[in-house]
Amino acid sequence: MGEIRQDEQPAGMTNARSKTTPQQLVAAALKRERGRAGLSITELARRAGIGKSTLSQLESGEGNPSVETLWALSLALGIQFSALVDAPTPTVEVIRLGEGPTIKAGDADDYSSTLMSAARPGTRRDIYVIRAEPGKPRISEPHARGVVEHVIISTGRALVGPTDHAVELSPGDYMSYAGDLEHMFDALEPGTVAVLVSEF
């Protein structure tokens, strides 16, 4: 196992159209995956058993990494080897209205929450669409410590936020608040819709 040469690179290591070199692919992948893992250059180098200067060079697109070095880095990052040498494929996810998993509050039809995007590994947020009707405020118990919720009203109006400091929001209004306190969502108009992002 030696260095990856231009004429012996794994499949996916070249992009003739954009003239991306194998070193540039590896550099971009290392920066991306290290960022996702939340590791400093020093910490990743330590975990992989390589020099900090070596890792810095690789992230700068310099040097020619050996397969052993890339293997050690992929193990330290907890990813497949191919994630460091293959060009990333853009992913697009579309969820049409009414398709996401929906949870209703009890037996009532006056409040429902639809999960639009669950947090993927390395991310720390979920995205929901809230549909609510006036009549009964939705009171939520405190979530785990450090949770922050973000709400944008799409249609209608609602009283949102910590139960003792709730604020009336209208279409286009945005609010963030601590989700680790008791909080509420009280629709003030029929057909109220909001987007809620739970950051944890």
Automatic annotation (TrEMBL):
Q: Which stretches of sequence are listed as region Disordered?
A: 1-24
Q: Which keywords label this protein?
A: DNA-binding
- On whether DNA-binding is a keyword of this UniProt record, the answer is yes
Compositionally biased spans, kind Polar residues: 15-24
From which domain of life does this come? Bacteria
User: Which Gene Ontology cellular-component terms appear in the entry?
Assistant: cytosol
Write one Gene Ontology MF term: DNA-binding transcription factor activity
Looking at the record, the residues that make up the HTH cro/C1-type domain are 30-84
Q: Does the keyword Plastid apply?
A: no
Q: Which Pfam families match?
A: HTH_3
The record's annotation in InterPro entries points to: Cro/C1-type_HTH (IPR001387), Lambda_DNA-bd_dom_sf (IPR010982), RmlC-like_jellyroll (IPR014710), RmlC_Cupin_sf (IPR011051), TransReg_Diox_bact_type (IPR050807)
**What PANTHER family does the entry give?**
HTH-TYPE TRANSCRIPTIONAL REGULATOR, METHYLPHOSPHONATE SYNTHASE
Which protein, by its recorded name, is this?
A: Helix-turn-helix transcriptional regulator
